[in-house]
Amino acid sequence: MALVTGASSGIGLELARECARHGYDLVIAAEDELVHDAAARLRVHGTAVHEVRTDLATYDGVEVLMHELRARDRPVSTALLNAGIGRAGAFLETDLGDLARVIDVNVSSTVHLARRLLADMAERGEGRLLITSSVAAEMPGPYNAVYNASKAFLQSFAQALHHELQGTGVTVTALLPGATDTRFFLRAGLLDTRLGRSKKDDPALVARQGYRALMAGRSRTVAGSVRTRVKELSTRGLPVGVRTALHAHWARPHGSGSHL
Ligand SMILES: NC(=O)c1ccc[n+]([C@@H]2O[C@H](COP(=O)([O-])OP(=O)(O)OC[C@H]3O[C@@H](n4cnc5c(N)ncnc54)[C@H](OP(=O)(O)O)[C@@H]3O)[C@@H](O)[C@H]2O)c1
Q1: Strand ranges (DSSP E) for 44-86?
Q2: How far is CA 53 from CA 30, 38, 132, 143, in A?
Q3: Which residue, by CA, sits nearest to atom 42 of ligand 1?
Q4: Does residue 258 lie within any of the structural domains?
Q5: Distance of CA 62 to the CA centre of its chain
Q6: 259, part of any domain
Q7: Cα 85 to averaged position of ligand 1 atoms, centre (Å)
């Protein structure tokens, strides 16, 4: 049985589709009612799909999901912790509650679920966990500061756990997609930026590559088109100040002036 969070749309839906195609029964989680449509679409692959509607921004919402998993009385052999949100804009002009929610969904729910799920996996001596980070993890993110920091946390967290769990039969993989064509940019308020208007990768391609890396037990993979992977390689070697300025150029809202 596989768990996929944030499986109602975008990369998560495609990750769930990969799991279903490879014969996994699924538990999928998301907050809104679209999760029911996603479950119906995934059932066409012939696997059992149980959907859980819960707000992963809250501790209790994560526990609701854990309760649903335990009620199935089957171990989660593979978990893909993918739910995530962004909140774009100048830090001082962004509502504190919105920023806290980015940390609650991206960071807190992932640590919470990883702690619970990995404990069971380690006890059984087998399991695979994927955590969706981002290429945004690799650069400080002016106009998206909390989001980029949350994704840097997730990359570091996943790679640390991968190392800690060596020899236990459990692997942890960080998935770093580049800009991908999903509802993310609209929801994060990024449409009015160069990043929001840039060419994006197909979420199905990102999911295929992520699934492959997960099954191979890799610690980290950058996913997307060749263009995305070359861009990631070429920016990774740049001094941090240059990477930061590049991000500002791409994420600064239109009309707020460009200094690059
Ligand atoms: N698109 C990109 O360019 C890109 C690049 C790198 C990394 N990523 C990461 O990829 C992951 C998936 O994003 P996406 O691009 O596929 O965007 P998306 O289509 O907006 O998907 C986000 C998913 O997360 C779920 N989610 C958000 N808040 C939630 C909450 N409080 N409780 C439960 N579920 C919640 C959403 O469900 P509801 O609709 O029900 O809230 C949805 O299923 C995120 O972690 C994102 O940071 C995206």
Answers
A1: 49-53, 78-81
A2: 5, 12, 20, 31
A3: 6
A4: no
A5: 16
A6: no
A7: 5
Q: Token pair for residue 222? A: 């950058």
Strands in the chain per DSSP E = 2-5, 26-30, 49-53, 78-81, 127-132, 170-177, 220-223
Whether 84 maps to a domain, the answer reads yes
pLDDT in tens, 122-143: 999 999 999 999 999 999 999 9
Domain residue limits at 217? 2-251
Pocket flag, ligand 1, residue 190 (CB < 6 Å): no
Taking the C-alpha atoms of residue 5 and residue 98, their distance in angstroms, rounded to an integer, is 20
CA distance 88 to 109: 20
The CATH number covering residue 143 comes to 3.40.50.720
Burial (CB count within 10 angstroms: exposed 0-12, middle 13-18, buried 19+), residue 211: buried
pLDDT tens profile 168-197: 999 999 999 999 999 999 999 999 999 999
Residue 147 is a catalytic residue: yes
Q: What are phi and psi of 43, to 5 degrees?
A: -65, -20
The DSSP secondary structure of 221-243, one letter per residue, reads EEES-HHHHHHHHHHHTS-HHHH
**Within a domain: residue 256?**
no
184 lines ligand 1 (CB under 6 A): yes
Number of domains in the chain: 1
